[in-house]
Design a protein that fits this description.
single chain, alpha+beta, Chromosomal Replication Initiator Protein Dnaa, Chain: A, 2 domains, 4-stranded antiparallel β-sheet, 4 strands, elongated
Length: 174
């Protein structure tokens, strides 16, 4: 097998990858793989097509000011949105209202930083367990919604499931 062929002026590489297989690698420190090809000529053509369509100057390390302004505007809009609007946008408002009502707390309390042995953490944990049970929500995603770490969510879901099994078993016996 032949060695790596470096193209002139740092315009990429062609790497042999086995009998009749060549890999085209774009220029740059990271060297994005453009694919594996059946011949050297195909790899060379793919690399040249990439270079013809790619900008020759490196992208700036800083983001343009307009992009920063748009991001900050979006963040400010999210801050001013009410909790109910955020939940309604995700289709979670009805679920949150149902769980909050069942536990005798408000939806806003469920998303607050209240800790302890009150009904609020229990309602919050029930909401986490229900979101996780749908299968569409991962622990990190639930944690992001509630402003918590995913391990906190895991522990809360486990507590809610144990509580549900214990309460359910007690109701069947009684």
């Amino acid at each position: 097998m032949s060695a790596i062929h470096h193209r002139p002026n740092g315009t990429g590489k062609i790497k042999p990858r086995g009998p009749g297989r060549f890999q085209a690698v774009a220029p740059g420190r990271q060297g994005k793989c453009l694919g594996t090809f059946g011949s050297y000529r195909e790899a060379e053509e793919a690399l040249q097509a990439h270079l013809d369509g790619a900008p020759q100057q490196p992208e700036p390390l800083v983001r343009p000011l307009w992009q920063i302004a748009l991001d900050s505007r979006r963040i400010e809009q999210e801050k001013t949105m009410s909790l109910r609007d955020k939940l309604d946008g995700r289709g979670l408002l009805k679920m949150a209202e149902r769980i909050a009502e069942a536990h005798g707390v408000s939806v806003e309390d469920m998303f607050s930083a209240v800790r302890g042995f009150s009904a609020v953490p229990r309602a919050r944990q029930a909401m986490w367990a229900e979101l996780y049970a749908t299968g569409n929500w991962s622990y990190p995603r639930i944690g992001q919604l509630f402003g918590r770490d995913h391990t906190t969510i895991m522990a809360g879901v486990r507590k809610a499931m144990v509580r549900q099994m214990r309460d359910g078993a007690g109701k069947e016996v009684a």
